[in-house]
Each structure stands twice: as C-alpha cells, then as structure tokens.
Write a structure and sequence with these properties.
Elements (H helix, E strand, L loop, with lengths): L1 H23 L2 E2 L2 H5 L9 E4 L4 E3 L7 E7 L6 H16 L6 E7 L7 H7 L8 E4 L2 H10 L4 E4 L8 E4 L2 E5 L5 E6 L4 H13 L1
Parallel strand pairs: 4-5, 5-6
Antiparallel strand pairs: 1-10, 2-3, 2-6, 4-9, 7-8, 9-10
Helix pairs in contact: 3-6
The structure holds nickel (II) ion.
Nickel (II) ion (NI) binds next to helix 3.
C-alpha cells in the first residue's frame, strides 16, 4: 500500500512538473514528449470558415500553428493572433510551410459566419475552425486546452477563461513546440524559423 501511495504521489508530481514547464518555458521542444507525461494533439473533425468540414489530415505536409481562443475575447486572443500574423510576415516565403489555424473554444457563439468575419481581420492566411460543442470539446481535450465560461458580475454575456498558447505541429501532425502567450513577434518568428529548418 505504501509503495502504491508513493507511486501515486510521484505520478502527480511528474504531471505537475510537466505542466509547470509548459507554463513557464518560452517554448517547449519535441523533447517534452520524451518525458512521456504529456501528449499533445491528435485527429480532429471541425468546420472551417467557409462551412466545409475539415480534419487535421487536410494539413498534412505543412506545419500547423494553432491558437485556441474565441472571437468575443476582449484582449488576449486579438493580441496573440496579431503576434502570429506579424511573425508569419517576418518569415517571408517560409511562411508558406505553415498553416495558421484559429480554433474556437466558444462554439455556441462562434458560428461559421462569425469566424468568417473574424479571421481575415488578422491575416488572410488564417484558417478559422468551429464545430459542434462535442467536437470542440474533443479537440481542446486532445490539445490540453483549458477553457471555461465565466460571467462577470452585472453582465448578461459571458467570457471564456482559457489557456493561451501557440501549438506548432509538424508536417506529420505530431507535436513540435508550444509557444507561450506574450512572446514578441520577432522572437516567435525566430523560433519558428529554427523549427522549420530542423
Ligand atoms: Ni482570449
């Protein structure tokens, strides 16, 4: 029994440390998956801003740079999507190796029409994805995204609390790197360039 208890403590500690690393480090390389505690990504089935069904297989052969957020977000999401767009501009022609993707964590409000109006505000290349609540729930779970509704006092509308990272997935669909919120665009561009080369 004692051994089991220690094993459980160790397991919890390993997960906590892995998440601590994810939160604190500016970017996490594929080495993370060698730790074994965290697996990120996987298949998804969603709907793009033109109303077409799309799966992750559609993007094989190119890197995916994915951001999870919602269009009603007052501050963080627009800032991060702007950073993403600026970094892609700085990459020049190399940016064509990357598909930038925005996935909503708020499928109730983020309809195809709303996503269609939203993504071009940041970049023409940006693909916006929504889906059924079940499909969105599945993809956020696969990417270890935290999101939850929160209603401010005296407000009739809700916000979404959500984790804010950029996920870089390789041309084979596997997890390559995680970039934290608030990275300056030139730093992001530099980090992306080194991953594209590697
Ligand atoms: Ni946001």
């Amino acid at each position: 029994m004692r051994l089991l208890r220690w094993a459980a403590y160790f397991g919890i500690a390993a997960i906590a440390i892995a998440w601590g690393v994810l939160w604190l480090a500016p970017s996490i390389s594929e080495k993370t998956s060698a730790i074994g505690a965290v697996s990120v990504g996987g298949p998804f089935r969603l709907i793009d801003q033109t109303g077409q069904p799309v799966t992750e297989a559609a993007f094989r052969g190119r890197f995916m740079l994915i951001y999870f957020g919602y269009t009603f977000c007052p501050d963080v999401c627009p800032t991060e999507l702007q950073t993403l767009a600026t970094a892609l501009d700085q990459l020049g022609p190399d940016a064509s190796k990357i598909v930038p993707i925005f996935i909503t964590v708020d499928p109730e409000r983020d309809t195809v029409a709303i996503i269609k109006d939203y993504v071009p505000l940041f970049d023409k290349r940006l693909i916006g994805l929504t889906g059924t609540p079940a499909d969105i729930s599945a993809v956020t779970k696969a990417y270890r995204v935290y999101s939850a509704k929160s209603t401010p006092k005296d407000s009739t509308t809700y916000l979404m609390d959500h984790s804010s990272f950029l996920y870089l997935m390789g041309p084979d669909g596997t997890f390559r790197a995680l970039f934290r919120q608030g990275m300056p665009p030139d730093e992001l561009a530099k980090a992306l360039r080194s991953r594209l080369a590697g």
